[in-house]
Design goal:
It is built from 18 helices and 2 strands. The chain starts with a helix and ends with a helix. By secondary structure, it is mainly alpha-helical. Helix 7 (150-185) runs antiparallel to helix 8 and helix 12 crosses helix 14. It has a two-stranded antiparallel ribbon with strand order 1-2.
């Protein structure tokens, strides 16, 4: 027992000395003052614990803080997978742009110097922190297949993906909520049975099968809608000096440049991929909306509203749908990852050169030449995770705006 107490005393003294030294050093750097200010501004005083910031803002701050934490965990797991590749293969990442990877052998002195220069044989934590630091600074690596930097490559393809996601969302979100609500209001009717049948078909057909059916009917058979993102004639106009790409979204840039013909052309090319992406998501949103609106319509406050003489339309849209939006948004957030995955698949099938091109470049390099190209693969994964987290953050914000219980709690605070 005396020996155990002595060890505890020594440990306590050691911790006290470390704290004192940290306090002395950080006094000149203002670290403790900075931390106190952050804690105080975050809504709680270190002494009084009194809230100083609105609870709604604190809720958003907590959600924002989850984004870097989640990214940190996922990037650590992704880089651990990359570490399974031998250093000689990963050294190809750092070859000069003018050097052909096919001309460099595994025992080449150039590779050995690159391994030493970039510490590719160091322990995992050292390599991961170095890569993470470069990632934060905007250095996402060099793509061997694309022969360009990864981050500018991803950002150049982002408007294509955003435009397709935007128009698909405008289709499936309001239409799914509308059809689900009408089916719940007319429960047991032919319309309800028809919606259930179509949504069951929509959720059971894979996205790539739906895309092939769309191309077979509307592109090969009827020739109503073309493939690719834009026609060759519009591309010639866009390559001129007079046409300015303000946003990267062709439907908007066409209007900003006074060329509505380019906007209409872009919409014709967007029709098939946007509908293919929207059909499965519409079926999901419609079924979720029908379930939760139907549940709300069976509650007592709906009976009270009918007893007060309110019209059926007002009872459904102002009471039942408003209360059902919270679980609808919560459940829809769970399908965000599948939405983004389907989005990339639709881009590939309809020859839309979006962010999915970055991953295709990395895989094609490995398939054709057997050379590992992890920079675009890692960049694609990190970017996709970030997009999913941002969409879920937007849904969380919408949930705060829609949920009257959360708003009442914030107003009371």
């Amino acid at each position: 027992m005396p020996h155990k107490k002595t060890a505890q005393v020594r440990a306590g003294l050691l911790v006290g000395r470390l704290y004192f030294r940290l306090r002395v050093v950080s006094k000149h750097l203002g670290i403790f003052r900075f931390l106190r200010q952050v804690v105080s501004n975050a809504g709680y005083s270190p002494l009084t614990r009194e809230a100083r910031m609105p609870p709604a803002v604190l809720f958003l701050l907590r959600r924002l803080l989850l984004v870097p934490v989640t990214l940190l965990i996922i990037t650590a797991a992704l880089y651990a997978i990359v570490m399974l590749v031998p250093p000689e293969r990963r050294a190809y990442l750092y070859l000069p742009p003018k050097v052909n990877p096919m001309d460099v052998l595994a025992d080449d002195p150039l590779l050995q110097s690159l391994i030493e220069q970039h510490h590719l044989r160091d322990p995992y934590p050292v390599q991961y922190l170095g890569w993470l630091g470069r990632l934060v600074q905007g250095d996402w690596g060099w793509s061997l297949a694309a022969r360009r930097e990864v981050l500018p490559y991803i950002l150049a393809r982002t408007p294509v993906t955003v435009e397709l996601l935007l128009y698909a969302s405008l289709l499936f979100m309001p239409v799914g909520l509308l059809t689900g609500t009408l089916a719940a209001a007319r429960r047991g009717s032919r319309f309800d049975h028809g919606v259930q049948l179509i949504t069951s078909i929509g959720t059971s057909i894979p996205a790539f099968v739906m895309a092939l059916l769309m191309m077979a009917v509307f592109y090969i058979g009827l020739r109503w809608f073309p493939l690719d993102r834009i026609s060759d004639s519009s591309k010639i106009v866009m390559d001129t000096i007079d046409f300015q790409a303000h946003t990267g979204l062709l439907t908007i840039d066409g209007l900003l440049n006074g060329r509505p013909d380019i906007t209409l052309d872009a919409l014709r090319h967007l029709a098939m991929p946007a509908f293919t992406l929207a059909i499965a998501q519409w079926a999901t949103v419609s079924r979720i909306s029908r379930t939760f609106v139907n549940e709300e319509l069976g509650k007592d406050y709906i009976t009270v509203a009918h007893g007060k003489g309110l019209k059926q339309r007002m009872v459904i849209w102002r009471h039942a749908v408003r209360n059902a939006l919270v679980p609808i948004l919560t459940t829809s957030a769970l399908s965000v990852a599948s939405l983004v995955t389907t989005l990339y698949l639709v881009e590939v099938l309809f020859n839309f050169h979006g962010v999915s091109d970055v991953f295709l470049v990395a895989t094609s390099q490995a398939a054709q030449f057997g050379t590992f190209d992890p920079a675009p693969a890692l960049g694609f994964a990190v970017y996709t995770v970030f997009i999913v987290l941002m969409i879920m953050l937007v849904l969380d914000i919408l949930q705060v705006l829609v949920d009257p219980r959360l708003r009442e709690r914030f107003n009371r605070s």
